[in-house]
Specification:
Blueprint: H1 7-19, E1 22-29, E2 32-46, E3 49-54, E4 59-61, E5 65-68, E6 71-72
Antiparallel strand pairs: 1-2, 1-5, 2-3, 3-4, 5-6
């Protein structure tokens, strides 16, 4: 079972979505750290896991995110 996402992280994501803030996301993809810059459009549940949906349609599992706009959310 995945660990819960902090309320502070949710709040930061919601502000970025509502204000359409261009965001920098560092996350784990295929075992490697990756960085992407995009606007987060929404949060979505897929098979009991939460994902960010970026402009352009890319989905990133919230549990793979290390940094969101410079703020650390996971050790790695």
């Amino acid at each position: 079972m995945n660990t819960p996402i902090s309320c502070e992280f949710y709040d930061q994501l919601m502000v970025a979505i509502q204000r359409k803030i261009p965001s920098t996301i560092v996350y784990l993809e295929n075992g490697q750290k990756a960085t992407i810059k995009s606007v987060v459009r929404e949060l979505m549940m897929i098979e009991y896991e939460e994902f960010l949906v970026l402009k352009g349609g890319k989905k990133i599992n919230l549990h793979t995110i290390f940094l969101f706009n410079g703020k650390r959310h996971k050790e790695g």
